């Protein structure tokens, strides 16, 4: 197996790694960097549990090769919060009761963050569309959607 | 003294406290089984599985696989002769002489990487002789069907399960009450229908994962995503031939269970392989594809209903026959068919009942417990028949349900009397919330609008002696550590547990932490996190444990202050005297006790309370009649209604509004109760509109999220309303009873009844896909091509 030298920024930390050709970004995060907040639900790009931000865009990290991440900036669920403060979407999802088993939560939070970054004032339909790739079996989605609305409101007030 | 200083203190019970595990879950810090790091010694397991639904094993050759570098162990059925199973021991770890479903484990491999393990699996050669498969439960129950378990008569079975040796029927539950035959002629209206409910899958977003390690002395440790660490300890140890205490199960957070992680399934494979590589942790993780066809599935059901009522609309009789497609092994599934048997009338008072509920072996995936435990399947047809019977009588379906539904004191199908229940209130409130009786207009000319309603009931289906226990310990800082053996599978069990401990002992909710992860070596016993029994059963144990600790505290302080314990209370972590108005915080004596008043020596010491709970009043049911005094501990009842539109151009159903009301006795945490009602409703909608494990000749055709669609954020109702009804359960903590599973029980029939209201068509079973509805509308002449 060929290895690739990459330099990748993960949660604002610069990492220099040698990754095998067939290693996915998800496995790199979970197995090499021990960032296990990113979840493996299907390894096929279908459930959204492994969603991370890659250069600001939400991607299924099981569908991206680690070797492709040379020079990229990755944010995982562990990198959402600031030093002492949760991201507004993290706060909002707790308040709204949008967490149950928690396995889809990291991906949901990342997709929501990406939505709010590109659209600070999303409509309900836009929220639903942004989360359509994040399967959740517990909550019935309504409280997650409420949380995104609430986070948008809080962020707008801050500005 | 009045409790002046305590009146402002709100009990944590009945408050919508934030989840105790929410912070770690939103930060990505929450630990699930797949997240535990085992270092370089970790081996990876893969499973060689049967490619046939039914075949005998002629020969297994593992020599080529063994020769592959990196392979550390290979096991087959030869290595493990023992049987395993919860209610009926009908399974081996690995198949020995025959395979019974596509995916049945034949051999297991441990290797230094998943890739090598996968390669080794391909190198194992198995010679089969293909046998005729049984692919239909009704045929399977007939004498013509080939036997899937010829040794059924030899299997160890629980005393309330009745297998029929010499057949594929692994349980036959019978109910004979009154006399159905003589009553039909007195009926003004009779409905006879057949319904078929397909297999579906639980689809937890976290796939099954288990890591097992066996040390040199033979002690086994299993880390897994589990609803049942104690049942796994018990069953796996027994099958391995070791004592329970030599088996330790550590169960971190569960990424969704819904029943699929109850009992024992793939965990035993990891343990079996690990016995051959002592000292090495062995990880087995199901792929999503394996999750769909090798993990438990919800059993299929073919159900026949006949029911009749008199002129006044009073139901006189029901005759129900259920053929459950139990799959290749029914060790757990037999009890689903029993539960469906004693609940066969739905939540109605019916004086004459004849019911036969058959659990039938087929060469389909293994049926197991899933949210609702037989009730969604049974209610799907039953609640449509109730609608039809009412309409045939020219009665309003809500009024008809009112007349017949169970009230306190109603006679149950099993013979005893119904306890206090808010079922009528649930029905009324649901009807009101959906504007029952008012025909709403369609939003567009190409849409037809309809409303439907359905009721439900469900009891925890478990052995009568399923126990719970809890420990409460005070730490130096006055925090209360609560030990439980139940699992948080997303439902919020840990949060509610903390609230109950806090309220009983007298500390704020924030002062309780859970002694988790559950570890059978340290955690107090819990039968299983199933049956929506935790709030009720574990709750009762927690109350006792917290009362025990509280008594130790009050006795100590009473002695120290020379007062009566009756004059003392614990409020917000302070022990207060209503007599002397003295006050001391628990942290001031929690661990180190107090000096004696005379200064000579010490009193008190570490405070630790214990509590256990087990129902004691559940009686058996007669094998021939299904009659008995106290069949189950209690029933949770409820109702759902939907208002929907069918698109005439596409057949697509859109749910405009959905309402759910359940009698939970007491909502310990109202927000969590509502979250269960919403989540179950959407899972129910998903099962009604989309979900079906497509089986062709025994092969699952759609084992992926692309082909097996579950509800997404775009599929939820435009609005959901949830209503909490609280008619207290006499023996429940603060009156509480369960809600987790009930929330998806009446959803399929509520939707089916609404579709009928909209377009006048009924279907033999779900899912009510756009395609199916469109074609049915074409056939009925409602639309033209």
Structure description:
The complex is a heterodimer of chains A (about 160) and B (about 775). Chain A is an alpha+beta fold. Chain A has helices spanning about 25-30, 90-95, 105-120, 125-130, 140-159; strands at about 5-10, 15-20, 50-55, 55-60, 75. Chain A contains five helices and five strands. In chain A, strand 1 and strand 2 (about 15-20) form a beta hairpin. The model of chain A has no long low-confidence stretch (mean pLDDT about 95). With about 775 residues, chain B is α+β, with helices and mostly antiparallel strands. Chain B is built from 17 helices and 33 strands. At the A-B interface, helix 2, helix 3, helix 4 and helix 5 of A face helix 1 and helix 15 of B.
**How far apart are the termini of chain B?**
82 Å
H/E element sequence of chain A: EEHEEEHHHH
**Tally of helical runs of chain B:** 17
The radius of gyration of chain B is 28 Å
Query: Oligomeric form of this entry?
Result: heterodimer
Which secondary-structure class do the elements of chain B indicate?
Answer: alpha+beta
Which two protein chains have the largest interface (Cβ within 8 Å of the partner's Cβ), and how many residues from each? A-B, 53 and 55 residues
- The amount of helix of chain B comes to 10-25%
Task: Look at the helices and sheets of chain A and give the structural class.
Answer: alpha+beta
* Average pLDDT rating of chain A: 97
Strand fraction of chain B equals 15-25%
Q: From the alpha-carbon coordinates, what is the Rg of chain A to the nearest angstrom?
A: 16 Å
Count of discrete alpha- or pi-helical segments spanning 4 or more residues of chain A: 5
Shape of chain A: globular
Strand proportion of chain A: 15-25%
Mean pLDDT of chain B: 97
Strand order in the sheet with the most strands of chain B = 3-5-1-13-10-11-12-22
Helix content of chain A: 25-40%
Sheet of most strands of chain B? 8 strands, mixed
Strand tally of chain B: 33
Shape of chain B: globular
């Amino acid at each position: 197996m060929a290895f690739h030298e990459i330099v990748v920024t993960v949660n604002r930390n610069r990492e220099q790694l040698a990754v095998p050709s067939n290693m996915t970004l998800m496995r790199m995060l979970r197995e090499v960097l021990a960032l296990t907040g990113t979840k493996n639900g299907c390894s096929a790009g279908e459930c959204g549990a492994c969603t991370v931000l890659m250069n600001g865009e939400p991607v299924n990290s099981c569908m991206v090769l680690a070797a492709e991440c040379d020079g990229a900036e990755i944010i995982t669920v562990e990198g959402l919060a600031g030093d002492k403060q949760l991201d507004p979407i993290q706060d909002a999802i707790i308040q709204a009761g949008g967490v149950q088993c928690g396995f889809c939560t990291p991906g949901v939070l990342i997709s929501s963050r990406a939505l709010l970054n590109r659209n600070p004032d999303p409509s309900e339909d836009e929220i639903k569309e942004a989360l359509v790739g994040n399967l959740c079996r517990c909550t019935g989605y309504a409280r997650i959607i409420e949380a995104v609305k609430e986070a948008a409101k809080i962020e707008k007030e801050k500005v | 003294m009045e409790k002046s200083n305590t009146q402002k203190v709100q009990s944590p019970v009945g408050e919508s406290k934030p989840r105790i595990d929410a912070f770690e879950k939103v930060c990505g810090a929450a630990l699930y089984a797949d997240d535990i790091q085992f270092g370089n010694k970790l081996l990876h397991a893969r499973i060689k599985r049967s490619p046939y639904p039914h075949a005998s094993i002629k020969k297994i050759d593992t020599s080529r696989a063994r020769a592959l570098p990196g392979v550390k162990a290979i096991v087959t059925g030869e290595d493990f002769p023992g049987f395993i199973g919860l209610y009926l021991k009908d399974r081996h770890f690995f198949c020995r002489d025959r395979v019974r479903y596509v995916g049945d484990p034949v051999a297991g491999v441990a290797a230094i990487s998943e890739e090598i393990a996968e390669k080794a699996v391909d190198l194992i050669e198995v010679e089969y002789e293909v046998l005729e498969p049984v692919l239909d439960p009704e045929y399977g129950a007939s004498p013509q069907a080939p036997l899937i378990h010829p040794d059924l008569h030899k299997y160890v079975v629980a005393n309330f399960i009745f297998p029929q040796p010499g057949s594929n029927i692994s349980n036959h539950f019978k109910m004979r009450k009154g006399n159905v035959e003589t009553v039909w002629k007195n009926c003004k209206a009779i409905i006879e229908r057949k319904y078929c409910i397909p297999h579906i899958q639980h689809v937890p977003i976290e796939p099954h994962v288990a890591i097992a390690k066996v040390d040199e002395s033979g002690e086994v440790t299993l880390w897994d995503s589990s609803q049942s660490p104690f049942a796994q300890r018990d069953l796996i140890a027994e099958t391995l031939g070791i004592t329970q205490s030599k088996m330790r199960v550590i169960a971190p957070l569960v990424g969704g269970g819904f029943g699929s992680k109850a009992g024992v399934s793939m965990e035993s494979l990891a343990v079996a392989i690990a016995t051959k590589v002592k000292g090495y942790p062995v990880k087995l993780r199901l792929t999503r594809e394996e999750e769909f066809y090798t993990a438990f599935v919800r059993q299929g059901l073919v159900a026949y209903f006949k029911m009749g009522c008199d002129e006044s609309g009073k139901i006189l009789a029901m005759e129900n026959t259920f053929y459950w497609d139990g799959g290749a092994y029914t060790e757990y599934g037999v009890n689903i068919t029993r539960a469906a048997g004693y609940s066969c009338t739905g939540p109605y008072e019916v004086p004459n009942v004849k019911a036969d509920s058959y659990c039938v072996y087929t060469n389909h995936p293994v049926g197991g417990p899933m949210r609702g435990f037989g009730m969604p399947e049974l209610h799907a047809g039953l609640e449509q028949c109730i609608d039809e019977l009412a309409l045939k009588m020219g009665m309003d379906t809500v009024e008809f349900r009112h007349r017949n539904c169970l009230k306190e004191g109603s006679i149950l199908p099993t013979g005893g009397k119904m306890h206090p229940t808010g079922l009528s209130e649930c029905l009324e409130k649901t009807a009101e919330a959906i504007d029952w009786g008012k025909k709403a207009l369609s939003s567009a000319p190409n849409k037809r609008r309809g409303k439907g309603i359905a009721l439900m009931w469900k009891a925890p289906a478990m052995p009568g002696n399923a126990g719970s226990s809890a420990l409460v310990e005070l730490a130096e800082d006055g925090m209360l550590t609560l030990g439980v053996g139940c699992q948080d599978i997303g439902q919020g069990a840990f949060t509610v547990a903390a609230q109950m401990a806090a309220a009983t002992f007298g500390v704020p909710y924030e002062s309780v932490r859970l002694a988790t992860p559950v570890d059978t070596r340290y955690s107090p016993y819990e039968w299983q996190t199933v049956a929506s029994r935790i709030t009720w059963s574990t709750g009762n144990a927690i109350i006792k444990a917290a009362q025990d600790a509280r008594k130790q505290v009050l006795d100590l302080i009473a002695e120290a202050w020379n007062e009566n314990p009756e004059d003392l209370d614990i409020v917000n972590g302070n022990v207060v005297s209503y007599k002397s108005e003295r006050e001391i915080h628990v942290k001031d004596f929690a661990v180190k006790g107090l000096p004696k008043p005379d200064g000579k020596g010490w009193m008190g010491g570490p405070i630790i309370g214990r509590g256990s709970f087990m129902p004691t009043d559940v009686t058996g049911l007669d094998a021939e009649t299904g009659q008995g005094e106290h069949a189950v501990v209690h029933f949770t009842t409820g109702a759902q209604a939907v208002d929907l539109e069918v698109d005439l151009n596409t057949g697509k159903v859109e749910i405009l509004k959905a309402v759910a009301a359940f009698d939970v006795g007491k909502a310990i945490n109202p927000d969590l109760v509502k979250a269960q009602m919403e989540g179950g409703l959407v899972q129910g909608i998903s099962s009604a509109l989309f979900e079906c494990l497509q089986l062709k000749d025994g092969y699952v055709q759609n084992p992926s999220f692309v082909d097996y669609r579950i509800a997404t954020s775009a599929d939820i109702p435009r609005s959901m309303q949830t209503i909490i009804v609280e008619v207290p359960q006499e023996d429940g903590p603060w009156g509480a009873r369960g809600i987790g599973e009930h929330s998806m029980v009446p959803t399929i029939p509520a939707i089916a009844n609404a579709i009928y209201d909209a377009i006048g068509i009924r279907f033999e079973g779900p899912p009510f896909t756009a395609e199916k509805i469109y074609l049915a509308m074409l056939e009925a002449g409602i639309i033209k091509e």
